[in-house]
Amino acid sequence: MADAVKKGADAVKDKVSEVTSGASYEANKSAAKDSDRSVGDRVSHGVDAVKDKVDEKTSEASKESNKNSAENEAKGIVETVKEKAAEAYNYVAGAGGEGEGKGLVETVKEKATEAYHYVAEKVTEATHAVTGEANKEVAKDSNQSVSTRAGAAVDAVKDKVEEKTSAAKAEAHKHDL
């Protein structure tokens, strides 16, 4: 990018030189044609006019070269920026093509879903652990009827199974994170 800026600045300097040389050429050409001047003075201005014309054309050619170089460099930079922007977009959004990788957004959505399911299973696991303990206490309570104690014991076993199932599911979701 610095090269493009330098070439652009050089093109501007060349344009200033071209205009200055052109103006000097016109002044020297007029002086060379002025019959009120001496022959030596007219010849001197004629030589200077030729030098100015050469400088003008040299500056014009240099200006065009620097301008073209700056434009080409800038076009290259624009193309590079476009390519990088496309790469960034594809990284974030996903390319969407067959066999292409998922985009960042899709990956984040999947990870968020897995995290949600992990937390939900951990809550379910904890809930079954608490209710299982409560049912165990009811099953041990001699003040309860036999049918109540038997029902609580069955529920405690079910809660333990559900607790272990939820723990396994939570671990699977955690693994997918």
TrEMBL record:
<protein>
    <submittedName>
        <fullName>Uncharacterized protein</fullName>
    </submittedName>
</protein>
<feature type="region of interest" description="Disordered">
    <location>
        <begin position="1"/>
        <end position="74"/>
    </location>
</feature>
<feature type="compositionally biased region" description="Basic and acidic residues">
    <location>
        <begin position="31"/>
        <end position="74"/>
    </location>
</feature>
<dbReference type="InterPro" id="IPR020100">
    <property type="entry name" value="Glc-repressible_Grg1"/>
</dbReference>
<dbReference type="Pfam" id="PF11034">
    <property type="entry name" value="Grg1"/>
</dbReference>
<feature type="region of interest" description="Disordered">
    <location>
        <begin position="136"/>
        <end position="157"/>
    </location>
</feature>
<feature type="compositionally biased region" description="Basic and acidic residues">
    <location>
        <begin position="1"/>
        <end position="17"/>
    </location>
</feature>
